[in-house]
Amino acid sequence: MTSPSAPEPAPVPQPAPAAVPPPGCPAHAGGALRLYGPEHAADPKATFAALRAQGSVAPVEIAPGVDANLVLGYQSALEVLRSPERFSKDPRNWRALADGSVPADSPVVPMMMYRPNALWTDGEAHARYRGVITDSLGQVDPNALRGYVEESADILIDRIGARGTADLLGEYGALLPLLVFNRMFGCPADIGDKLVVGMSGIFDADADSEKANQILTEGLAELVALKRREPGADVTSWMMAHPAQLGDEEMLHQLALLMGAGTEPEQNLICNALLLLLSDDRFAGDLAGGSLPVDEALDEVLWADPPLANYAVHYALQDTEVDGVELVSGRPILVSFTAANTDPALSGERRGGNRAHLSWSAGPHTCPAKSPARLIAAVAVEKLLDRIPDIELDCEVGQLEWRQGPFHRALVALPVVYPPITVTAPAAADETPGAIAWKTETAPPSPGPTTPAPSSSTPQGGISTVREPVSVNAAPRRWWNFLAGSRRGR
Ligand code: HEM
């Protein structure tokens, strides 16, 4: 197994400043508010409200014994994100990890440790990795991507359609990005399963994180070896053929980043938007206003409940101040995208159609995949509501459980019920996620590592399921039927 690079030694640590506990707070961890655990997961807004009382930057605990500062103000967030000369992304600046006061097996370490990738580097190294990523993602044809998403969605809906009940998180939202990304990255099913198990495990930031990290690394090493032998018309092969000539270790780390970004946050954008659409009256049947409800719902999630709630970890290169709050060098600074987007100083600004939220971050490390990420989520949501129009939540919103890690806003499950639909190619009940992955393409003869990879116009492998959806449901149709119909020109 190839392990990710270990953090390099850093200078002697300085003690983190003590926080002032808000009186009577149940999530208080003895020095700073907890950004993890059941109380925070059940009501993150309460945590942010308590933290805001301390200023636009406040001390938090992100795992047992792991201290950080959290940026809550919108302007303060922009200041940190857009000042690479003052704030580094490189976790080798993290003093408490380097000196062992944060143990290497802390559950948050896999999501925060140094890896030679675009996310954790600055300056020239960052520009080189980011160039490979943006150039290769730029070769993805949006129409082909839309097709992958629709086909993936159909496969998954066929599996649950006749049943009348499903967990949209586990059976749709979590699997769809995996299918799409396996296809985009030329990843066969067995490797794809390892990647999703590994990636999902490290986002949970719990005791199994290290094991999950190993599974992820193993799967990625297998994918890199496969694509060196057999390049195809896929993002992995385009990255390998890039003039920057990334080595295997560098490829592995960019892929870990891309897979992480492409599966977990995507699943949470899809499911958080579905939850909103199924539970919030503002999104039920309001076609009269001429709005596009799926787009509005995605905007609302990206403003109010972003998939990455708190991340963009930075380190002050020298002791500095933001909005009057002292930030000691070497201590992690996280940006709360949720808190910044819901900063009371922004109140009164209209959210619908306004994309000035920070959910894709900002500055040099802003997400390079905003358009494909949004397209995937929009098509996934529209397709589901089109084929299963009369879907309902199978519990009260308040009964839904949220995962407890500090970084994401992620449901544990999204149970729904609906009148069963008829599918022409129902899936076998015992199918595993791997069994529904794409047929892999026929690989060309194995060339050397600098051989150009096939372009995005190279024909792709076929898809195993052919179906024509037939809804047997006679209940009144909801607005999303109209939406889907109008997009098909009906
Ligand atoms: C709903 C889905 C997504 C959301 C909410 C999202 C959000 C973000 C955010 C907030 C960052 C900055 C993180 C930080 O600085 O710590 C980021 C960076 C990144 N995202 Fe996305 N992302 C999504 C989907 C994707 C997809 C689909 C891909 C690629 C296939 C992708 C690739 C990346 C990469 C490579 C970076 C690092 C860029 C850099 O550091 O220069 N993201 N994303």
UniProtKB/TrEMBL annotation:
<protein>
    <submittedName>
        <fullName>Cytochrome P450</fullName>
    </submittedName>
</protein>
<dbReference type="GO" id="GO:0005506">
    <property type="term" value="F:iron ion binding"/>
</dbReference>
<dbReference type="InterPro" id="IPR002397">
    <property type="entry name" value="Cyt_P450_B"/>
</dbReference>
<comment type="similarity">
    <text>Belongs to the cytochrome P450 family.</text>
</comment>
<feature type="region of interest" description="Disordered">
    <location>
        <begin position="438"/>
        <end position="470"/>
    </location>
</feature>
<dbReference type="GO" id="GO:0004497">
    <property type="term" value="F:monooxygenase activity"/>
</dbReference>
<feature type="region of interest" description="Disordered">
    <location>
        <begin position="1"/>
        <end position="24"/>
    </location>
</feature>
<dbReference type="GO" id="GO:0016705">
    <property type="term" value="F:oxidoreductase activity, acting on paired donors, with incorporation or reduction of molecular oxygen"/>
</dbReference>
<dbReference type="InterPro" id="IPR036396">
    <property type="entry name" value="Cyt_P450_sf"/>
</dbReference>
<dbReference type="GO" id="GO:0020037">
    <property type="term" value="F:heme binding"/>
</dbReference>
